[in-house]
From TrEMBL:
Similarity comment: Belongs to the NAPRTase family.
Name of the protein this chain belongs to: Nicotinate phosphoribosyltransferase
Pfam families: NAPRTase, NAPRTase_N
Domain of life: Bacteria
Domain Nicotinate phosphoribosyltransferase N-terminal: 8-132
Length: 442
């Protein structure tokens, strides 16, 4: 995918821990790590998991180049025996978790990584950086598309974030329900719909607005979208229809009172015979602004800053915690933190969602030893939320690429439709369904 070294997209202490555990022998202990969040971002009723496909792509490239190993050695981050270990490194563990596009809640075990401590610990920062950001963008996209009530939302946020984050955000926005992106690299990598026509600079570089419109239509055809708020909107709309005719594809408004302007522009277009011309609005939109435009004659939304920053919640506060490992006797043992406000639930987890009258009512998270979990009988109609992504190092390619993104978008829409309608409220509130933790005896 992008040109970077996945093994170095991490924190130094992952390598110093590896170095020490290789020396004392604990690097080879079988372990289970889990990813979850203790709480949803403020004002959110649900989360949306995104980034799993990107993580699997990165895992395929998780191999050390010579210059990576030279860097680690020259900086004395690890010793020679650890360099030898990394030289032949390959992830051989198993990864399962929630499907991409699935909704989640506090304590949902959205990802479970099982393998040797040495290989699992190296993945921590990579996993968290991908899932925390992509899930934040997908959740924002989900809230925006819910507020849009079926009107298309498009990603225009590339210029408002890091250039690599822009690609991740474009992908995550599709998982959350967006229809297309202005980012061409994302469109190329993931076969997404690319959108965009012209900025205000295009109008300004021409001697007149008419000349700009004539140039754009000559190049892109009458079905293009003309930007009409560089000077005077009313005059621009009149001119746009004069130049393109009533077959004009669309107009875009990027400033002012969008609801009022959209109404006036719609009436003007209809009066000019351009009844099929669409109206797109942009200009620092978020879910609240989109909701306020529900009664306005708007056909689509272009969203930038608020999308790529998670609409005020740029991370999901996901953590990666060791919950189980082998002891000196070779048997798996549950482990947990007891830190104040950061305590964790020991043991690997199962996860289900129960329903009443076809609506989700509870998230059920069950922990315990493998033997007990294998015998656990879920309630009638409970949906198992965990799927396998990697089986002893073998990556399931069904969860990567364009089709996987579109499947995730479809799955998200289905999962969201199963939640109580209050999930789509933009008001402050608790998670829309509770999470029930059950610990089976060890």
């Amino acid at each position: 995918m992008l040109d970077y070294n996945a093994p170095l997209m991490t924190d130094m202490y992952e390598y110093t821990m590896l170095d020490a555990t290789l020396q004392d022998g604990t690097a080879n202990r079988d372990c289970v790590f889990e990813v979850f969040t203790r709480h949803l971002p403020q004002n959110r009723r649900y989360g949306v998991l995104a980034g799993t496909g990107r993580l699997l792509e990165a895992l395929k490239d998780f191999h050390f180049a010579e210059d990576d190993l030279r860097f680690l050695a020259d900086r004395h981050i690890v010793n020679k025996s650890t360099i030898d270990y990394l030289e032949r490194f390959e992830f051989t563990g198993t990864i399962r978790g929630y499907r991409e596009g699935e909704v989640y809640f506090p304590d949902s075990p959205v990802l479970q990584v099982e393998g040797k401590f040495g290989e699992c610990t190296l993945l921590e920062t990579l996993i968290l950086s991908i899932l925390n950001y992509d899930s934040a963008v997908a959740a924002a996209a989900s809230r925006m598309t819910s507020a849009a009530k079926g009107r298309p939302c498009m990603d225009m946020g590339g210029r408002r974030t890091n250039e690599w984050a822009a690609v991740a955000a474009a992908r995550a926005s599709i998982v959350g329900g967006f229809r297309g992106t202005a980012n061409l690299l994302a469109a190329k990598l993931y076969d997404l719909l690319a959108i965009g026509t012209a900025a205000h600079a295009f109008t300004l570089v021409h001697d007149s607005e008419r000349a700009a419109f004539e140039s754009q239509i000559a190049a892109l055809g009458r079905n293009t979208t003309l930007l009409v708020d560089t000077y005077d909107i009313e005059q621009a709309v009149k001119l746009a229809v004069e130049v393109a005719g009533p077959e004009l594809g669309g107009v875009r408004i990027d400033s002012g009172d969008l609801a009022s302007l959209a109404q006036r522009v719609r009436n003007q277009l209809d009066a000019l015979g351009a009844t099929n011309t669409k109206i797109t609005v942009t200009n620092d939109l978020d879910e609240y602004a989109i909701a306020s435009l529900q009664t306005a004659p708007v056909d689509s939304y272009g969203v930038g800053t608020q999308l790529v920053t998670g609409s005020g919640s740029p991370t999901c506060s996901m953590v990666y915690k060791l919950v189980e490992r082998t002891g000196d006797d070779g048997r798996m043992q549950p482990v947990a933190k007891k830190s104040k406000d950061k305590a964790t639930v020991p043991g690997r987890k199962l996860a289900y969602r129960s329903y009443e009258y076809s609506l989700a009512e509870c998230e059920h998270v069950v922990s315990g030893p493998v033997a007990e979990l294998d015998c656990f009988e879920p309630g009638d109609g409970w949906r198992n939320l965990l799927v396998d992504f990697v089986d002893h190092g073998q990556i399931d390619d069904a969860y990567t690429g364009h089709d996987a993104i579109m499947d995730a978008q479809k799955h998200h829409a289905e999962a969201l439709a199963e939640l109580p309608i209050t999930a789509q409220s933009l008001m402050k509130g608790d998670p829309v369904i509770p999470t029930q933790m059950v610990t089976l005896p060890w």
